[in-house]
Amino acid sequence: MTGSFWAAFFLAPMFVTLIGAVLYFTLIDRMRTAGPMNQVLVTFGLIFVFLDLVRMGWGDIALGLDGPASLSGTTRLLGVDYPAYRLFIIALGLGVMATMWLVLARTQIGAMIRASVENTNMAAALGINVSKLFFLVFCFGCALAGLAGVAAAPILSATTTMGITILIPTLIVVVIGGLGSLEGAIVGSVIIGFMETFGAVMIPSFSAVLTYALLAVVLIWRPQGLIPARG
Amino acid sequence: MFYQTKLRSITLIAALIFLACYASFGSYFAREIVVEIIILAILAISLDLCAGFGGMVSLCHGAMMGVAAYGFAIMSAKLGWPLFPSALIGLFAAVVFSGLVGWVTSRTNGIFFIMATLAFGQMAYTFFFKSRWLGGDDGFGGISRFDLNMIGLETNDSLVFTYIGLVILLLAYGLTAIVMRSGFGRTLSGIHVNEDRMKALGVNTAAHRAKAMAFSGFIAGLAGIIAAQHTLYISPELLIWTTSGEALIVVILGGLGTLVGPIIGAILLVLMKHEISNYTDYWHAFIGLVLIFTVLAGGRGVFGQIEYWFNKLTQKHQSTTKPHGDDHA
Q1: Record: contact B120-A220, CB cut-off 8 A
Q2: Could you state, in order of their start, the residue ranges of all structural domains in chain B?
Q3: Which of A13, A227, B148, B216 has a CB 3.0–4.6 Å from the CB of A143, allowing a cystine?
Q4: The model's pTM
């Protein structure tokens, strides 16, 4: 442990990617065609296993992590003092979003990914190595999850249950936004984030149920999500 | 489609006798384990009817059970109603909740359905968790068991309570089996296999799925009433999504779409849990590995695998007779 935030910032996503790569070859590749039920079950099993592995290694106590010293102060922005680290997270999020959009929408590899998702067989017939591509996408997803973990640790502090706590809001964001659409994920997370924050301030007694109520409305009104994936 | 085969009847009776013996000859602790198995088995049967026959893998069954338990506890312990009407109101609440969730999610499928039910289960959990009147996180006690002294049963005796639980388990199984064999159950299976075709045949598939969820809520509610009377205390713990996840594990471990499988799965899971937690605190990891192994091994589950081998064996012997109806995978 060097105690350096920036070391963690790069090492954690790499470590998570490594775990993801191992999982991909042992389990996930086989589960790709197994249907949602089996996928959920295997994921479930993995949650149980990893939760206990983390408890074995780090115990049940929440671990705090200090943000980098260079971002510990506040920044004056539009006349408001705002924690610099939170601004950094916002910038990081925007950066990741922009990069992903550029890669998916504007590059050849993005086109190959979209083609493989839309019609796996046709993409393979056109000479795309679909399984290698999906492996890369999965690794990249793992790296992003690791990055989110590092970025969140100074604010939320690392606990064994943080994986479970973040799961439900993440699922709600994905369902509201629309499965498989980047724009949907962005719109969904902005809506949920705003509702949780403003709901907690303005109607505290009702705020816990508010996001679920929104989910119900979206499911009735647009079962495919606000911005569903094309195709 | 559901068939009450001889193998299923024999396994069911054997499982019930095993549980009764385990409770009768074991200590007080053994009876606690049996009641735990009964609650989990009823919940898993309720989930099996949704997931195995309707293809609706729900992660809000813990919440369905919890709503019934809370309904019963609120009426009896907080408002002082008699126990039987309170239990009926608890069951009714579970049916309404499940029906509503079923109606809202009836147009979603696959992973969307799983996520949506997960979210609604968590919504119910959050509601009880935040409610100060109902003790929030701590839950509340003061619940009593049914007074059956007029027919000579002392429900506060742990053995008598366990026997009553076993009878309710048998009733839950029987009721589910009858409904799954009826036209209603067959239509549900039809929707699972090909929803568009059932629509073309003039079935209102969304309404049918919502009704199936409501019925499933009734069965889950039975588990909730037993759970509340067992510990004489309830907490939001009942509704949390991991309870539903545990029920799903039980269904998979035992055998999806067999109704007997969930009972076998509940016995295996609870016994495994108690045996392993004697040695290590990390029994969840073991359950996780068992689950992954079960899915990779073909996903039939313990009873499903036995049934598969049994059917293969009998078909080999009587190759001239008509083969068995294909079971749900």
Answers
A1: no
A2: 6-239
A3: A13
A4: 0.83
